[in-house]
Amino acid sequence: AVFAAQIIPAVRGQKRAEMRAQIAEFRKYYRVIQAGEYDRLTDACAGGLTAWQHTAADKGEALVCVVTPPVRANAPFATVYPRRLDPDAEYEVNGRERRTGAALMYGGCW
Predict the structure, then answer these.
(1) Which helix (DSSP H) or strand (DSSP E) does residue 64 occupy?
(2) pLDDT tens digit string along 62-89?
(3) Strands 37-40 and 50-55, bridge-based pairing
(4) Pick from 80, 89, 22, 78: which is nearest to 56 by CA?
(5) What mean pLDDT, rounded, does the chain reach?
(6) Is the dihedral angle over the CA atoms 82, 83, 84, 90 positive or is it negative?
């Protein structure tokens, strides 16, 4: 906490606004991150993308996080398959589209 308190006053303008937006995003999902079920969706040591998921106990909300390696030409298409979703519930994907839990678990998302 002391380290962060020393750095934040030195950050100005666009960077400070970006940091505030990231903190707000984290707070939005804090409940599901802190108290939800955690699943690794891929093998972190396999060398490809790394994905994990936090799911609320009531399965009403899930957060899937994906970290990709540096982009390369003609990289293979990657699909992530979430787990523990309610098959009949609709979930918002990337703030743009809605899909059922069944479609996400069996069809995946990319």
Answers:
(1) strand 62-67
(2) 999 988 888 778 877 788 999 999 999 9
(3) antiparallel
(4) 89
(5) 85
(6) positive
